[in-house]
Amino acid sequence: MTPLPVRLHLGSYAPTAGLDLSGVAVTGDTMFLAPDEGSALLRLRREPGGSLGWEEPEEVALTEAVALKGGPEDEVDAEGLDVVDGCLWVAGSHSAKRKRVKPGTALDEIGPRIAEVSPEKSRRVLARLPLRDGADGPRTVPAGQEVAGLGEAARLPAGKRGLWGALADDEHLGPFLGIPGKDNGFDVEGLAVREANAGGGVVLGLRGPVLRGWAVLLEVAVHADGAALVLDGVTKHFVDLEGLGVRDLARDGDDLLVLAGPTMVLDGPARVVRLRGAASAALPPAITAGEVEVVTEVAVGRGCDRPEGLAVLPEGLLVLHDTPAPHRLDGDHLVGDLWPAAM
């Protein structure tokens, strides 16, 4: 089945200006996007009249919406987004970064350049942002400001009392914490919040590491205490995605959808798979390949068009791409793919 085009009016944030997108969440007629760099999200509204198009965005500065260490220039690398029970959840990649080799780099400089690895502590973000409903849909509020029934914005600590500290001595993931994400190191790329009757945990999908072909889902139990999220526990779940990692997560009724793709810098394969009941029932310790239902294979380009964002719309499944191919760029618009709900 051929996907339908979805046009996102990104204005000055369009990929032609060098911006890539890494995460998406939709609630009603409001869409939140996570750019691949910086410390801000984008908020879009659906064009009127039931259109598949989305209007020009406004910026949501995370440093204004939740207490973050550092400034606007520090990269959060937001990757996972979900909206549930009136709150927007945001996860940074938590990954270390290896220096990029730019085109034209002298051959004798490549080795020293890729030897440089930085821990990127600003990426260690897991935050819950309450949304206030307005005439034009839900919006975040300034840090410290409460929304009735939801409280104020809260985030998990980035150090020993957070996810990093909980995994430091983990037998599976601890050795990968300091390895850059694109080297099969620790890299959060998807987020979905499960129903309260299923434990209410925040599920994080890892692009890496992939361990002997098995991808990892982390269920993170937290509770809010003022402006802090308090970590109550972390549970690992292994999924046989046939060597692929998690590039995004989305809830679809009782099911959890996984956008699966390579952990390394490769052009594919990529596919959307369904984990039946995984959004409403307890997750098992492991899910075998036979229990993973392929929804659709997703085409990728050569050096471009890498599927990176997944969201459920009333019309079907929306897939957005990192490093979009030229046919996805139309001035200040980005074109995504919508797989009809009949799938």
Automatic annotation (TrEMBL):
Domain of life: Bacteria
Every DUF3616 domain range: 20-335
InterPro entries listed in its UniProt record: DUF3616 (IPR022060)
Name recorded for this polypeptide: DUF3616 domain-containing protein
Organism whose genome encodes this protein: Actinomycetospora aeridis
